[in-house]
Amino acid sequence: MIRFAAIAVAFLLASLSHAAPADRVDPSQPTLRSPEDLILSEDGQFLLTANRGTGTISIVDRRQGKISSEWRIGQSIVDLLPLSDQRFLALDSGANAAILLKQNGDVLDILSRVQLPYSPVKSDVSSDGQQICVSCLWPRKLVSLSLTGDQLKLQRELILPFAPRVVLFVPDVQSILAADNFGGRLAIVDPNTFTVRHVREFPAHNIRAMALSPDGTKLLFAHQLLNSLAVTNENDIHWGLVMSNELRWVPLGHVLDAEADFYGNGFMHPIGEPGKGGGDPTDIAVIDDLQAVVSMGGTGQVGIGKHEAFGLFRVSVEEHPTAVVVSPEKDVVYVANGFSDSISIVNIEQAETIGRISLGSMREPKLVEQGERLFHNARLSMEGWMSCHSCHTDGHTNGLSSDNLSDQSYGAPKRILSLLGKADTAPFGWLAVSDTLEEQAHKSVETTMHGRDLTDEQASALAVYMKSLTLPPPIDTLQATRNQAAVAHGRQIFLRNNCIKCHAPPHYTSPEVYDVGMHDKELNRAFNPPSLRGISHRDTFFHDARATSLRDVFEVHGHQLAVELTDQQLDDLLQFLRSL
Length: 580
Prior knowledge:
This protein is of the alpha+beta class and 580 residues long. Among the domains are: 20-115, no CATH class; 367-467, Orthogonal Bundle (Cytochrome Bc1 Complex, Chain D, domain 2), CATH 1.10.760; 475-578, Cytochrome Bc1 Complex, Chain D, domain 2. Helices cover 17% and strands 35% of the residues. The strands form 10 sheets. It has a 5-stranded antiparallel beta sheet with strand order 1-10-9-8-7, with no helix packed on it. Strand 30 (332-337) and strand 31 (342-347) form a beta hairpin. The protein is globular and about 70 Å long.
């Protein structure tokens, strides 16, 4: 009996150490996959897509030009990272997990899985294949994973001063680069100690992609740049002065040198030209040392550009391209279309789309999904320069200011507000000029973006999508730093100073406008108070972004406190605010 039990335990342990097959899915069943990432298999025969909408991975035989299989891996797969020995890593943002998989033709096996902090978004691997870095958006964390055999292990976590998205190992100089998801910051991290060497800052927001040139001398960025000095009128939009979209080549050595000006010493490909904008770049694929392709998620196009050659050869693909991959032969580019459940094939030399591969049957989008598509659609704006997502990155905010007619005047730029958790916080805008999100959608597209008139159905779809944008957990929860006693004391300070007059629970705002001793450049003095929920995820404050930290709101600007606070009282008040 004892011998039988020992054999049973040994069999169980052996079975746990072997790969487990993934669940096969029928691609003919109508759904919305929403491919978010795209990679080539190690042998170059297959393309694999990370499907955000279904938690599946689609395998496409690129030589046959058709879908081979689809596998359910998790809840929402957003990133794929090629490794060695036909293995790759998948990030599941729905289940907050990293999943190690092995591909054998059109079959996938799950090798191991590790739990991650909230909201993993991107990953990269060291040149020796033993260290993987994962960015986790809302906790502002990088995670270091070790890969030994077929086992993943979480080693260390690093908190950054910003919310990271794209991460990139630079093998020759032993560095990891981590780019800001919302603003223009770049952290240079030591992969051995997993500490920040320094943080660079440059004029950018919405950094969606980074790539190294094959010779390792140049770093490529795809990002946007909002000019708060420009006015959102037809002239400034037409000339690309309000919102520019950029593919920028910069010397890698200048990036790593904390004293060097890498931005000024780089070369910029403008993604767009007067009359033909290129809103919302999403990905970069390097063709060779001098050529790269960039996808334009907002206009349904890709652009092929050569270093130090002005302009891009633009090619139309399908709706919302999210990822691009160059073939091993360097003759075509494969493009994952996020809202079309397809892969476009673009000939590099001819600069034209030559084929399409469907990922399977699609169902009709629901109203909230229609709104998501409109939100990311730069063709709603004049000449395609920007989408709603351009300023409200991932539904949040880039923290910058824009001079538009949302306050019924030009000349007074206002900080862009987050849309997360905006449902039930009417009226909207700094001057409370919109009573509903439908009304605000009309104003944003028609007055600020100078696009075509929205139909009421489109405005309703946008409003439904904006209402679906929920807040992430507070930063002190995500970073496990909450001090309950300090939060409770901070709440009492909040109440004693009558902060609830303007920021009333449960939404921590109110429908009125208030004079808080500030004015904009048009001498408006009464503003609608933004909700304090989710304030820990913001980096700038007040209508003109004059405060660059929550502490400065009180220490530097003395915002609406009835009495002067001690250092401890201020610390506790900030603890309470960060808990909302």
